């Protein structure tokens, strides 16, 4: 056999294992170094900036109201409070069944209702009432997304539709009852066969002039209302979106109020409801399916702010164009979509806080943390455990990216709005004045060929680069749509064919807008540690945007050398931000929400027992995590020591803290 062959090398390895001499029985076992997994507060430096000032920037308004709501949560067993020293933390119990989660979500709503949390959520007016509502909604969403979605369906979707689609007769009848949660409304738009394509929904409403009623039907299985939040168990009323047929003419999508359950919770006649079942997230929300079988609703239940049907069946509307009428119906839904985007941010906040804390304690192998999925990877195996919330948050984040319009559809809408603004400015030969496109009135930015670290981190360079990308993509998008139209395609088809540029443009617009907002807030700060920190965070955001988008190289906004320089600067920023990691991650979430010190603690508890190496105990670590001063796990050390001594085994460890505690324990 050739001694250099692969087979010969494998045989040699096996022979080495077989011929390996046995270790001497008398040879002592070497003790491994004691692993210590302390809460990061014990080793990290204190914040170098004013935490209260950072919170004022991040939360922006109603700080005292937010704290009041968090105290309400801390005081009730419904929110699963965990007391650690002099502090209280709250978090949902995700080990409950679907039915239990739904029941406790309702009890939490009733608890908050009795304490006046929802006052003004539907009947209030003015910016102060709106901001207070949004502040409360953020607090609730950070605690549990099932709770926030359940409330959002009733107060924002149902309640918002009554406010914006309805008129005085609807406001007087439904708004106060909704705010007091006497009426539990849901929002029946999505169908099994029609999600983002609202124009194509198949539910039909026909006006009966003899009775002055609309007769609503589900004509086929694909027309069943699907994923309707609140429908499966609790909703008493719904808003039905359907095609309106008047004398055989389809007048398009309209909205109707209908009762689907009576006061005792029984499903109303001519309505069928089924449960959508268990989901990957939001199991505290009772999503359901609804069918209508000749359901009759009064003429007055048509939400008629845009169009109406007179008693004799005559259809009237101040908006004659059907497309514009449809757009008017859809416009109020924008508020709900903004809430969904905001909720996705809250999810990311919690996931990031958990992941950064864990990363400061035990290194895993993920190299990025972009969204809850990357946070899960960064937590290794601990990211899979329900108690640690990462998996739950990841599933709920996916939901936020899907309902009320898939993200791809929303990106198309953003690009279409930008295109309309661009074409209008071109046609009128007027400056841009809207959607933040005013930067296109300025000369085209010039990006330096040789980038230094100072240049790369400057606000001017970052904004110039993102503005350059946006203005170029907008011009390319308009040109491509125009080219398709010149080839005979309709405008709608031309827009669809240009979807790749549309997606790139929407991303460019979104990221430039976020960076501009960040920079504006940063510039209002006086010089000092907080402003320096904001500069680091702003640079990290801007450069990650550049690094992750191929369009900067695809269209030549950056050279290969400049792109490489940006990539190196990202790594330098990671080092510069590292000392602030705990302060930023934990204090973007200055709440009593339980940030589980991931179950490495459970892992440590398991491996500590029955071995001579006792790592930091779980109980003590949790206490120190919460900031309380407690004995250093002595009770658990004592239990371990006594068990070993009782069995005649040696108590030994190379952990100084363990040996110190063990020496102080007398035999009993």
TrEMBL record:
Question: Which amino acid positions bind FAD, per UniProt?
Answer: 190, 229
Domain spans labelled Acyl-CoA oxidase C-terminal: 464-583
What InterPro entries does the annotation carry? Answer: ACOX_C_alpha1 (IPR055060), Acyl-CoA_Oxase/DH_mid-dom (IPR006091), Acyl-CoA_Oxase/DH_mid-dom_sf (IPR046373), Acyl-CoA_oxidase (IPR012258), Acyl-CoA_oxidase_C (IPR002655), AcylCo_DH-like_C (IPR036250), AcylCoA_DH/oxidase_NM_dom_sf (IPR009100)
Which intervals hold domain Acyl-CoA oxidase/dehydrogenase middle? 186-294
Q: Which cofactor does it need?
A: FAD
Q: Organism's domain of life? A: Eukaryota
Residues of the active site are 404 (proton acceptor)
- Give the Pfam families listed for this entry: ACOX, ACOX_C_alpha1, Acyl-CoA_dh_M
Q: Which PANTHER family did the record assign?
A: ACYL-COENZYME A OXIDASE-LIKE PROTEIN (PTHR10909:SF352), ELECTRON TRANSPORT OXIDOREDUCTASE (PTHR10909)
Q: Which family does it belong to?
A: Belongs to the acyl-CoA oxidase family.
Q: What is this protein called?
A: Acyl-coenzyme A oxidase
Specify the species.
Answer: Musa troglodytarum
Taxon lineage: Eukaryota, Viridiplantae, Streptophyta, Embryophyta, Tracheophyta
């Amino acid at each position: 056999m050739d001694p250099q062959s692969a087979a010969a090398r494998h045989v040699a390895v096996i022979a080495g294992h077989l011929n390996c001499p046995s270790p001497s029985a008398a040879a002592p076992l070497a003790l491994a170094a004691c692993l210590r997994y302390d809460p990061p507060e014990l080793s990290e430096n204190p914040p170098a900036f004013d935490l209260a000032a950072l919170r004022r920037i991040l939360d922006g308004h109603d700080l005292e109201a937010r704290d009041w709501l968090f105290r309400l949560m801390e005081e009730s067993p419904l929110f699963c409070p965990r007391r650690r020293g002099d502090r209280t933390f709250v978090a949902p119990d995700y080990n409950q069944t679907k039915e239990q989660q739904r029941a406790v979500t309702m009890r939490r709503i009733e608890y908050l209702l009795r304490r006046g949390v929802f006052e003004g959520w539907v009947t209030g007016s003015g910016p102060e009432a709106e901001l207070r509502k949004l502040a409360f909604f953020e607090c609730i969403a950070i605690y549990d997304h099932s709770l926030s979605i359940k409330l959002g369906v009733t107060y924002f979707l149902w309640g918002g539709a009554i406010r914006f689609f309805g008129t005085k007769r609807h406001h007087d009848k439904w708004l106060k009852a909704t705010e007091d949660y006497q009426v539990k409304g849901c929002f029946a738009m999505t169908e099994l066969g029609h999600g983002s394509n609202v124009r194509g929904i198949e539910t039909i409403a026909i006006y009966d002039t003899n009775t002055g009623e609309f007769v609503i039907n589900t004509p086929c299985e694909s027309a069943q209302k699907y994923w309707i939040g609140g429908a499966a168990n609790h909703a008493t009323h719904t808003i039905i979106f359907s095609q309106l047929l008047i004398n055989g003419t389809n007048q398009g999508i309209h909205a109707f109020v209908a009762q689907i359950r009576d006061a005792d919770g029984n499903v109303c006649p001519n309505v069928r409801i089924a449960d959508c079942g268990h989901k990957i997230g939001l199991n505290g929300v009772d999503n359901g399916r609804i069918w209508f079988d000749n359901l009759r609703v009064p003429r007055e239940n048509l939400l008629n702010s845009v169009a109406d049907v007179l008693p004799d069946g005559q259809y009237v509307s101040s908006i004659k164009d059907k497309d514009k009428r449809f757009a008017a119906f859809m416009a109020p839904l924008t508020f709900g979509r903004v809430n969904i985007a905001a909720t996705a941010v809250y999810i990311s906040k919690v996931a990031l806080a958990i992941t950064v804390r864990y990363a400061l304690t035990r290194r895993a192998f993920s190299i990025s943390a972009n969204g809850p999925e990357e946070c899960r990877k960064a937590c290794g195996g601990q990211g899979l455990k329900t108690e640690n919330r990462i998996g739950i948050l990841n599933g709920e984040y996916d939901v936020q990216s899907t309902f009320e319009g898939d993200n791809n559809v929303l990106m198309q809408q953003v690009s279409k709005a930008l295109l309309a603004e661009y074409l209008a400015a071109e046609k009128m030969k007027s400056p841009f004045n809207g959607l933040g496109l005013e930067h296109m009135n300025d000369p085209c930015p010039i990006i330096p060929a040789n980038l230094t670290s100072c240049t790369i981190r400057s606000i001017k360079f970052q904004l110039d680069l993102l503005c350059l990308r946006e203005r170029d993509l907008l011009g390319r998008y308009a040109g491509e749509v125009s080219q398709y139209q010149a080839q005979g395609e309709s405008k709608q088809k031309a827009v669809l064919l240009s979807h790749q540029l549309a997606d790139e443009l929407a991303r460019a617009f979104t990221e430039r807008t976020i960076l501009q907002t960040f920079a504006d807030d940063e510039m209002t700060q006086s010089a000092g540690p907080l402003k320096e920190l904001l500069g680091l965070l702003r640079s990290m955001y801007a450069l990650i945007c550049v690094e992750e988008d191929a369009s900067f190289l695809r269209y030549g906004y950056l050279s290969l050398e400049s792109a490489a320089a940006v990539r190196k600067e990202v790594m330098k920023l990671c080092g510069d931000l590292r000392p602030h990691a705990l302060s930023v991650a934990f204090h973007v979430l200055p709440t009593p929400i339980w940030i589980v010190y991931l179950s490495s603690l459970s892992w440590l508890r398991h491996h500590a027992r029955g071995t001579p190496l006792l790592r930091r105990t779980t109980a003590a670590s949790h206490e120190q995590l919460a900031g309380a001063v407690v004995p250093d796990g002595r009770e658990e050390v004592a239990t371990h020591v006594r068990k070993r001594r009782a069995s005649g085994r040696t108590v030994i460890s190379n952990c100084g803290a363990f040996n110190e505690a063990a020496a102080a324990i007398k035999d009993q």
